[in-house]
Amino acid sequence: VVILWLNTSKQNLIIKYISISKKPDVLCEISGSGQTFFLSDLIGVFIRHSRLNIQGHTNIKSNAGAYADIKARFSNYLMAYEETTRWFFLNCLSKLNIIGYDNGSIINKLEVLVQADKVGLRIPESHMVISKQDLQNVLKNNNEQLITKSIAIGLSFFDLNKNVSFHQYTAKVDNKTIKRIPNSFPPSFVQNNFDKLFEIRTFVLDSNCYSWALMSQSNKQTEIDYRNYDWDNPMRVVPYQLPKSIEKKIHRLMFNLKLRSGSIDFMFTTNGEYVFLEINPAGQYGYNSDCANT
User: Fold this and answer.
1) Which one of 64, 68, 186, 262 has the fewest beta carbons within 10 angstroms of its own beta carbon?
2) Parallel, antiparallel, or unpaired for β 44-46 and 97-99?
3) What does DSSP assign to residue 65?
């Protein structure tokens, strides 16, 4: 078995040649390596964590200055060519045994919640609000237990000079929060919060589920969002077996979303309920697997 690993943070795919014949094919190169391959040589592909970076050939340095309009129109013309090439490449790729998909880390989290509810998974009561008044009403109707989280890819900022990073995590919303915000704000996503015993991450690959229990409630720093790691006092992570009834609903959900792999987050409440939170189609599993020695 030959495995070709593409570091998408540093390397791109370069489309070198396309053959349009009885058997269409694409010759690709991995940037910086000189290594080439035909798509027809591949048996399977696992697209994980990020979209495929396909290196373009358009290199118009600036659309300003003389002939700015011509430069802009010519740039758009070349980009349309590259998008056609990219579409053909992805269409050929889709005919292989493929896990994941282009833009694999992007998924509509609102639609996922709707689909999870349809297959019978318990989901949190969820709202999009744009005003302090609406937020106050939702908070009151949920026993003043709310959290807010991103429905897109979370923001991260890095200060290389000070060697620090800032990340967007799930956060608690209470009356103190409301006092600090304006009367209106951009659309924000809130959900009712649960009293939980622990969290569960389940990595799904085709018909298999691999789960870990994350004892996030043992530490104040991780009790709202386990990703807010306390590196000085790491939480305990252990292998876990979900009930078969939950796993069956997971497989129905994955089928409906046309996903073959991904990582799903649940919480297990003090009332003994499994509450579905979200799917990460990028399929993060390494950290939990290392911690649980699995």
Assistant:
1) 186
2) parallel
3) S
Amino acid at 247: E
Sign, CA dihedral 137-140-142-146, equals: positive
Compute φ and ψ for 180, nearest 5 degrees: -90, -10
Burial label, 165 (beta-carbon count in 10 A; 0-12, 13-18, 19+): exposed
Q: What is the largest CA-CA distance in the chain?
A: 69
In sequence order, the 6+-apart residues with CB closer than 8 A to the CB of 104 are 47, 48, 49, 50, 51, 281, 282
Write out pLDDT tens, residues 43-101: 888 776 555 666 665 555 555 555 567 777 777 887 787 788 878 887 888 788 877 66
Hey, what are 108's tokens? 């509509």
67 φ/ψ angles, rounded to the nearest 5 degrees: 60, 35
Cα angle value 94/96/98 (rounded, 5°): 75
In the prediction, which pLDDT does 20 show?
83
* Helices then strands, each counted (H, E), the chain: 6, 16
- The answer, as to whether pTM is greater than 0.85, is no
